[in-house]
Amino acid sequence: MRLDTIANYLTKLEDPVRQQAMVDSYSLVLRPILIPACAYYLFVTWEHWQTQTGILLIMFSFISMTTALSFYMFHKHLTSNRTMSLARLEVHSLAMHLFMYLNLLSYLLVYDVQTRYIYFVLLAFIFAITGATARTVMISVPLSLATLYWFSTSLPSDLYAEYLSIIVATAFASISMTGLLRHAIIRQIDARLLADEMTAKAQSLADSDTLTGIPNRRAIFEKIDALIERGKPFWLGIFDLDGFKAINDVYGHSMGDRLLCAAVDRVMEQVSEGVMIGRIGGDEFAAILPGNLTEQQVKKLVSNGIESITSPYVIDNQELTVGASAGLSHFPDMGTHSTQLYEQADFALYKAKTHFRGQCILFEAADSEEMKNAIAIERELREGNLEEELFLVFQPQYSPSQKRVLSFEALARWENPKLGLVRPDQFIRVAERSGFIQKITGILFRKGLAELKRWPDDIGLSFNLSARDISDQTFVLSLLGEIMKAELSPARLEFEITETAVMSDLATSSAVLSRLRSSGCKIALDDFGSGYSSFEYLDQLPLDKVKIDRSFIRKVPHSITSREIVAAINGLCSKLNLRCVLEGVETDHEMAVLEELQPDLIQGYLFGRPMSGEDARQLIADQQQQNADHAVRYIQSA
């Protein structure tokens, strides 16, 4: 046998898992023997009471009764103790052998009965079978056979030779029996350990994310359920990467995968003991923080993680940057089961991404009713007949200089049999969070095109796109396909986007919008002035129109500052060759003030509330009739 083979064998023997497996296997061998052996020595004790008296009775009865009780206690110990060490099992089995040996030896020392010499052979076989280790066998079997040899030396030469042959045969038989038994047990142990190892690997693969190696969604929820079952308090955090999709689109999925792994490595470097980080899917992750952490402590921990994620990454000489936002819920204060806790943390994450991007937001009690409504809305979005339930209304955009409506903005509406008429801001927000927004956009866009076909060629349609819409180039191309299928001029279509829709990934948004504009469609920036950096978008986005936020328009009659801001933006748009829409004009007083600014386009209740397609067609028809009458009067006067 080579030295490395011997070393490997010795290493296996010292392996704690293998030693415990040896204990389990030999316990199965010993337990069935101990009770019959206990009964046998109780019988021997009874026999002593029938045949012995005096000091011999006491001595023999003590030895046999002690043996019987020891066997019983050993059996009880093996049955109840599942974590006995191999060394301890070795001591127990050696003691068992010694008691059996002393019973026979004491009897033969007092009564030299030649016919009972053969019992040492029987003991040798029993010792060979029940020896927990090779060392136990090497002590017990030679002791039994040596004692047999010592007794046989006093016999006549012919009997001595006969016993000597028996001793040699027993030695070989015992060694063979021990070897066969241990070989069978070791093979069974190897097979079981291999099966356990393969099961553990399969379990590890089933519970691990194949890309990052951290726990996956299944493992995360198993951990949550386990903590809930034990009543252990913990925080559940859901976080995802801001701007990751753009990196995937621009640099490819391989670069995106490497970025994900790099972000995970950074987070794992800061994870304290007991904290579990897992990947739920895509660029969404979960963190389980057990213990009685305060809100301040957990916010600090998560904020540190977010800060580490947002530092630049250098991959293949490319410097990449992503952000991160997080939402948190707490067990047991906020929820009592895993689904509820996840929904709360996910809802808090959506709030963070919508209003507090790059921050960590905790779910609050005040959010419960809003989340309940959101869940009801999402359920109906999944189960409802959206093709029938969704519809559009149209609000005119009026040109004061031409005294006519030039276009309409399409506004989404949803009337559900169970929920009734749902506010657009509510169901659009839920649709964006749950991933239904593109389905809704597609349905409404087709309905908008169908209505536009019924209007004169000089009337346009303005249609709103969400952040998810403009972040998906494939989806935007499908909208262009719908325009071609409807055989409409792209110049009649205008796509409205908001600052919040482009701020998460300006580069991708600009590329997608440029694709739309190059196809002939127009691009409008809605709610201009409501954000913090809107003027930057005038330079970086391919715009045709700017819509000034209604918050300024409402202050115009009472605020010189608002009036000057509106005048400045209106003048800037004129110089940049951009059309400008003043939104939210509702009163004649507002219009009287705004007329001094020579506005390009007006949109508001003063010139038309959102209306059905039929009413929009009637408005267009009335406008055409008025223009015709005006032309007739002009000709007649001429």
Could you describe the 3D structure shown?
It is a single chain. A hairpin with a 3-residue loop joins β9 and β10. The protein contains 25 helices and 16 strands. The strands form 3 sheets. Strands 8, 9, 10, 11, 12, 13, 14, 15 and 16 form a 9-stranded mixed beta sheet that branches. It has 638 residues and is an alpha/beta fold. The relative contact order is 0.05.
How far is the first residue's CA from the last residue's CA?
122 Å
Structural class: alpha/beta
Calculate the mean pLDDT score and round it: 86
Weakly predicted, low-confidence segments = 1-13
How would the global form be characterised? rod-shaped
Q: Count of DSSP E strands?
A: 16
So how many helices?
25
The description of the largest β-sheet is:
9 strands, mixed
| Rg of Cα set | 43 Å
User: Helical residue percent?
Assistant: 55-70%
β-strand percent reads: 15-25%
